[in-house]
Design goal:
It is built from 18 helices and eight strands. The protein has helices at about 1-20, 30-50, 60-80, 95-105, 110-115, 145-160, 185-190, 195-200, 200-225, 235-260, 295-325, 350-360, 375-390, 400-405, 410-425, 435-440, 460-475, 480-485, and strands at about 125-130, 135-140, 165-170, 180-185, 270, 285, 325-330, 370. α10 packs antiparallel against α11 (about 295-325), α11 (about 295-325) runs parallel beside α12 and α11 runs antiparallel to α13. β3 and β4 (about 180-185) form a beta hairpin. By secondary structure, it is α+β, with helices and mostly antiparallel strands. The protein folds into three domains: about 1-85; about 95-190, Gyrase A, domain 2; about 195-485, no CATH class.
Length: about 500
């Protein structure tokens, strides 16, 4: 019980820190009220453990309903008090915007003349210049055969003329006529410091809290699959190392890629959660925050895909190894399968899982059997599911960045809309996909453009993107009957 109170306390502290630092910037709803709502599932679990004891699990319907209900209430409260984006004609009177406005509105005639000389006619012929509060839009005709060469030439001239006052954005326009936009550099106004970027103390504390919650989850998993009735605390360590190792390599891949392209990004932050007896996972993942623009579509693709592929390789390896340590059991009576029923998992939920399970367990895995998954297999399976979610081609998810880089921002947004509607339709036949499909509708389909958002990718990255999308389908699509019959499942 002591670990429960420590973990709830740590979780409460970091949730409140996150809400005060981030969420309050987009909503007027009281941070304390949002904190109470987001912590209610943990409080309910703690109250249940105090009344019934830590070994009596909360009923699955009650636990899932509590989590989902307060999650929906949390989103509603944010939306109810959401601070609307200001109209271009009347930006808010914030210190950052005040520092940015004069840069755009007070361009002198000499500045405008210098701006026009930044566009040599053999690269890009400027016909009109539009002044907006947040940007200067330069429209015209692209004359260079290479959009990359045109961007680099004009970027160099703008930097020589104006220093670091602007970011130069090259974006797709209507009728295949790309335009340039000079956007004030917010880093000059906000004065981002290394302490604002890295925050190693917060990253370390979140990692420690996640390690505790994952080790605790590993204990619960051993009890759940019947491997031990009272495991020691450190017996949950293999699960924690597997799952946290997956997230660390995945986010480390993202971080390395941002550093390679000179993109400012934070250290990876883990997200700990109190393990539910019916869903002992211990963490909701890890993430990095990108704090500067992405230079081009090539960098956008690499940032989205490299970390995801590295994490997927680790997850598949953990899943395959863990399945060799798992046991095949007869399907329990009155069996109600679930994608998170680790003590009796059916491999039919995924083509990838069915193939790996048959390869690892052989002929012992047959009809009317299930898998009592080893904690390492659970870590690999959760990593695979997390990767699949992030590879969905929607918004700022890894897959969303990938299709944006391959097809462009507008077409990528259309693909994202089609993808989430298709997944919703599929979830009516495969109910375990319902929560995933609902979450996708809370994400915008369009992400921010790269600075050079016109130059297309090379054929190698296009091919890699198609392969990654095929892997995504293999993970999320249930095994068809013909494959089940061929594998003897």
């Amino acid at each position: 019980m002591l670990w429960l109170f420590i973990l709830v306390g740590l979780l409460g502290f970091f949730c409140y820190f996150f809400i005060v630092e981030r969420v309050r910037l987009v909503t007027r709803t009281s941070p304390f009220l949002l904190w109470i709502v987001v912590m209610m599932p943990a409080f309910c679990l703690t109250a249940w453990a105090l009344v019934y004891g830590p070994r009596v699990p909360m009923p699955p319907l009650l636990g899932f309903g509590t989590f989902l209900g307060f999650f929906v209430l949390y989103l509603y409260l944010i939306q109810r008090g959401r601070i609307e984006a200001p109209a271009i004609e009347s930006p808010p009177e914030t210190p950052v915007v005040k520092a940015m406005e004069p840069v755009v509105r007070s361009l002198s005639s000499e500045d405008e003349e210098r701006l026009r000389t930044c566009f040599p006619w053999e690269c890009y012929y400027v016909s009109t210049i539009e002044y907006l509060p947040q940007a200067v839009i330069c429209r015209g005709n692209l004359r260079s055969a290479s959009s990359e060469t045109a961007y680099r030439t004009i970027e160099s001239r703008v930097q020589n003329a104006f220093g670091d006052r602007f970011f130069l954005v090259f974006q797709e326009g209507l009728q295949e006529r790309p335009f340039f936009a000079l956007v004030p550099n917010p880093q000059m106004a906000m004065r981002i410091t290394p302490e604002m970027m890295f925050r190693p103390k917060q990253a370390l504390l979140l990692a420690l809290a996640t390690a505790v919650s994952c080790i605790w989850s590993g204990q619960l998993l051993l009890i759940q699959v019947g491997a031990s009735t009272s495991p020691a605390f450190l017996e949950g360590l293999p699960y924690a190392l597997g799952l946290m190792g997956f997230f660390l390599i995945r986010e480390g891949g993202h971080y390395w890629t941002t550093a390679r392209y000179g993109i400012l990004a934070t250290l990876p932050y883990f997200i700990p959660i109190v393990p539910l007896p019916q869903l002992p996972i211990g963490t909701l993942g890890a993430f990095i925050q990108i704090r500067s623009p992405i230079p081009n579509r090539r960098a956008l693709f690499d940032v989205g895909v490299i970390g995801a592929v590295m994490g997927l390789v680790v997850a598949i390896g953990l899943l395959g190894w863990g399945l060799t340590l798992s046991e095949v059991i007869p399907q329990p009576p009155a069996f109600r399968p679930s994608v998170f029923k680790f003590e009796a998992m059916l491999p039919q939920y995924s083509i990838a899982l069915a193939l790996l399970a048959k390869l690892a367990l052989g002929s012992s895995l047959a009809t009317k059997t299930a898998i009592a998954m080893h904690p390492i297999a659970v870590a690999g399976w959760l990593g695979t599911l997390f990767t699949a979610f992030n590879l969905m081609p929607v918004g700022q998810l890894d897959g969303g960045r990938m299709v944006h880089a391959i097809f462009g921002q507008r077409q990528g947004a259309m693909i994202g809309q089609v993808a989430r509607i298709s997944l919703l339709l599929l979830s009516f036949m495969q109910t375990h996909l319902l929560l995933l499909s609902v979450l996708l509708f809370f994400l915008p389909t369009m992400d921010e453009p790269a600075l050079n958002d016109v130059t297309p990718l090379d054929s190698y990255r296009d091919l890699l993107g198609i392969v990654v999308l095929l892997v995504l389908l293999i993970i999320i699509i249930p095994a068809p009957k013909v494959l089940i019959a061929a594998l003897g499942l």
